Task: structure prediction
Amino acid sequence: MKPPFSRSPKRIATRRRDQGVAILWSLGSLLLLSVLVVATLSISERDRSTSRLYAQSSETKLLSQTAANLVVGQIRDATTNLGISKTWASQPGAIRVFTNDPQPDSNRAEMEAMYKLYSDETMVITGNAFDPLSDVPDPTWDDSPDIWTDINEGVSITDSDDSSQQTYVYPIANFHPDPTREIEGFDADRSSMPDGARDSIGIPMPVKWLYLLQDGQITAPSNVSGSSATFSTVVPTEDNPIVGRVAFWTDDESCKININTASESAFWDTPFSNGNTERAYVFKGPVRNEFQRYPGHPATTSLSAVLDPWLTIRDPNRPQVSELQPYWLLSPRIADGGSRGGTREVFGTSPVNTDSDRIYASVDEFSFANLSRSSRNLDDINSAGSETYFDNDFFKIAPFLLTAQSRAPEVNLFNKPRVSLWPLQLDDNQRNAVDELLAFCSTANELPYYIQRADVWTSSGSRGSSQSPTQDLNIPRNEQLYEYIYRLMDTDIPGFGGNFEEKYGDKDARQIALQMVDYIRSSVNTIPFGLSPEYRFAPSFNSEGARSVVPLADNSENIRGYGRSVTPTEAMLVFFPSKTDGLAVIQGNKDRFPRRRDFRALATEMRAFLLLETATVTPGFPGLNPHLQYRISGLNGFSVENRSLRFPAEAQIDAHSRVGSYAGSQMGTFVGGLVTLRHGSNAQFPRTVGTLSRTQYPFTSAIGVDGVPITISQDPDTANLRFSGGTIEIEVLDWTGTEILQTLTLDFPDTSIPAPYVQTDGEIDETKGEMGYNAAEDRVYLKYDSRELNFNDRLAEMNTPDNIKEWLVRPGDVTRSVEVSTAGDSPTKGDLRHVMAQASVPQSYFAPHPSYEGGTSVRFASGYRHAAWQWNGNLYVEGSAPNENDALDSGQKNTPAGQRSTRSLNRFKQSTRATAGILVPQATYFRDSVPAVPTADPNLPGGVVSLKKNGRPGDWDTGMAILEDGPFINKPDETNITAEGGRDSRNFGVGTLFNIQRNGDREDNGGVSFSPNRQIASAIQMGSLPSGIHGKGGNNRPWETLLFCPNPPSRETSPADTPNQNDHFGFIAPYDHLLADLFWMPVVEPYAISEPLSTAGKINLNHQILPFTYLTRDTGLRAVLKNMRIMAMPTDAANRSRMDPIYKEGSICRFSFRYGVNVDETLEGINRRFEEGDIYRSATEICETFLVPERISGETYYRPPRDPNYDQTLDWWERHLLTGDNVRERPYNQIYPRLTTKSNVYRIHVRVESLKKSRSSTPGEFSHLRDIVTGKWQGSFLVERFVDPNDVTLPDFASNSQSSFDDDSVDDYYQFRTLEVNEFQP
Amino acid sequence: MNSNPEIQRGIRFRPPARGFTLAEVILSMGIIASVSIPMVALLALGLENMRESKGDFMKARIEKHLSSMVTQANWGETNLLKDFDSMEWEYDGQGTPIEDRGDVDPIYVARVGIDAPAPGAPPEGLLMPGSTTPSREMKRVTITISDRPGLENPFSASGGLTEFSFIATRNDRR
Result:
């Protein structure tokens, strides 16, 4: 090996040749140096370049943050420091702030400012005027790239499948390239859309650049076009140069469908008739955890509005399970089971087992959702056989239509917390897990914003606060919340102006506030099941006072609510024969043997007893049977023929019965007997507590003392007995008899009456002679049933409940009643709600029966109704409906006591003409639909009692299922589906809707169907609460309730015009629907969709996109409206000659009363607000918009009118006058809770460039041709405003202190957080 | 040690070879001088580039540090954002804030300005384009970084200044 550094002999020998080596060495060194220097330079340049990029990246990130902060700052400026006098509403691209100063000739207040959430030269518009078209980009925008930029500019990429193909990817939105996969409601008006789209699916969204100066000032170009940007207000200078520019546009996430809350299924509602559709709501109703069918639940918002092109439902009106399953698999915590989208009967089923899928973090995750998301084998469902449901283009369009993060604030227009509609027990130990979550959602800084109940029922000896009128209201926090609601009603409403105290007067404002509090307390969550601990707020179904709740009373204001109880509506005096010899009454030719129908025997003595008819305004389920005491005084003055009837001066009864004793089979076909309007009269007879044994009934002529002698021998109908009455006072007391709940004053005028007689079955009394003939008297004697002569014997018959109709009042009795007045000038006009709501009911609320003064020609002058099936529920009264079937087929045996067997039968007789008033002028009521109103005053045209004081139709409710219509307050449906029984045990008779499948009188012992969110969705449900109990100046307004819909029957103004107060009192500004804004129902199942002060998944009514008004995205609203139904009963629905069977009959009605919603036409109405340049300030304003009905294909409708357009909708409703107020408002109850006008989550789309001014260019201008763009960034920020509910500085927004009330609002406590930052990197 | 005897001899005893001629030396020197001087200058340029690169990195890092602090500052009752105004920070050569000066000499010094007054600008809050009222919820923030902390006034024009500006908004509750 050659050693290193060796020098060869040859080289030594020739060293002379080394001359010049130094130069070579030098050159070598220089070369080395050069390499070193070049390397150093190269490295330094690369470093420099890298560091510059890093610095530029840092700068552009800072710029992008600046852009996002500008938007957040705008949002904050718009949504804070508002106090209780301003409110705001958002839409894509803007937030508007409204004052509480009403605009002239409008029911809305003025806009104070509009804060743009897109970059523009005018970021804040002040004043009331804004033209949404004013900001539409200049058509030549594309020529001025230093002034405008397309925030949605497409970027070309190579198609992954075909490298020769270039496609564009858009950062915000684009259409689907396949026209067959168009999304409903996502479109553009291409005639007004600006140029600049890269391809046919692109949507130019040009906004202006805003320039950032060195000192942080923001300036906008003053020119709208040109090759450079020039400035006028804030002008860049050499010392303060332009350093960057930003452009942004902000989307409102609440305009998108939330993939974590929406799902798909079939519509469900409480049944209001007995048609096939309604029966399907019974048999195939949603069970527990079938959230996608709960009324108003976010899961009823239809994902198919977006996904239908991929997951097609062939007939949306009748979705198949296989079509729904993919949706349920995609939706977190939504599962198959129960009614399976209304396709399966649910008896004997179990609650749905929800899946455990976590909620989606982003739309991308949803788009990639694949079959492995569920353990189920979906091979047969996913016909495409691909790994995901969706194609590549879905990924690109989905983020503009779907969201994983939308939330809306749950504050009212005053920026204060809403009050929860779910009542809870004061004691934490009496709350189940769902209760706790609901409590959490309605608590801020440990202060509850929900109504509490002092105690629950545990036994007959421990009945809880439901049986006290004051115990719950005395809870300090309840007192505060009651006062809070009243104060909010007494404060000018931001966004609208005016207040309810001015509109209704102080007394009615308080009355409405108390009604609402009591409605929450009494109408929902009375018997929850399936969750531990189980509790009963109202007494158990088989205990005294079953399911009743005593009305809440504000004694300081002398007002009260309704609870779930009864009020006396009629006092009936029954004169009955107490002694007879059996002497037959013979009419006509006495030589002739009396005809069977004349088998009457003369009485020789008479007595009397008084019966109270009581009524509830909360019929429905569960069954109701209050335990009350009644004290009556003043009866002792009553006499006949100047002989005292010997009533006690004052007496008191303890009246109760147990639902369980009379429910089910004992009631036979008389289903609903104890749940219908009229409280069972058998309940008023005193009992020993806990048993069925009766004690003495005191409101009778003195027992054991002779009655009033009757010394007539002629026809008792012609006897003229003089009755002297007087004023009586009825006091309704609580079950202990210590607390007076209500006092009523009634006056019985003096009058003439015929004589009572004894009804016999015509059997001759042979003991009096042959064939009963007494020759001396020339008269026939008849055998009689002595039970008829003795009140206690009559009463004994009531142990067989049906006998009450036959034995309590007999054909030979005489009745005289004083009942709730229906006279046109009376305070009530038969509206029983007005009686129920009065603590002291004056005499003027009652009137003698119209036939009271009929003299001897009128035997029965009463409208007394028994709590049985409607048409045979009347006791013996004039003009009762004939039961033609019984009479024709069964003779007298089963004839209801209220029927005269001798009446000529008229198959289609209008049964209520004589027994009760009617509700709809044009309607003819068959026997099964007798409205729950008192006897009509004879001066009322057509017997219509329900007209308002201006003569227009009034507000009444359609009864649940086959219950009668009447003056109700829309009791929430607490009905459960039993876990017991099944198809075999089903009774397909009239009981089907109630006792068996709906299990109205029994408790859901399996917890199969109970859920808070199924019972109540929103305060729209309170729309049947009267609004004029007292009236301004004492001028009360019967048959007028809170108005939560645009189509009350009294409206005559076209949908195209603004309604007025003649159309309804609720149309006086502020409109009634704004009351619903004060409340909310947190959604806590299947997971906490609601949090304190916010709820996810609500859709913004304000879908108009600013400034890109040429772009339409109302898909979210379509998702809300898509599966909705409108119920409407034709005016002929109660007329048997037109509709057989009628809508309330036990037999199944073959017609459907449910219509779909014409979404296009309805949106036409919704969009009119935008065309006016305005937006919706409150989601309750949906109640001003007509839902346009359309027939559902395949359904059978009664003489259906043509489907209307928006402006024809009122005419359409004119043909459906038999539709109650509650049913008209019902769709809004399902729609409103899924809507909002405020968003908490915004996606800010940002495009920024860091800039460097060229030394040679003018400092006051910027041109991309002369100046330098040093960095770019494009992407989006997802930001959320939120309140920390545990913030210890949160004040008590419901404080009793006026100054705190005026000063404290939630808006100042909002914080912001960034949920996502996405860089656009196609 | 090398075992080649010839080499060993050469190293130890061979007289040095004849040196370079003057001409060679002069020529070499000339070449070296004419080429290396610009080379060295270029080297200096490269080094300056590297220094500036580092400076860019460090300033970007300092900007991030300060902007995130300002962005996250509480605007609430304690009004901490106000405290940032005119506050100065010193950083070492790695862009790390110097908490305790001690023996460490700062390499960079930075100052934050909140709503720095500018001609025609309101004293507080950001005036959005087209608006006449400054925003309550946004503030202009400038970050000025000097790499000459030794100067009496490092934020003067000769201070090797880098300036950043952005808009901060309130994230906490009012």
About this structure: The radius of gyration of chain A is 39 Å. Chain A touches chain B through 77 residues (CB under 8 Å). The longest strand of chain A covers residues 567-585.
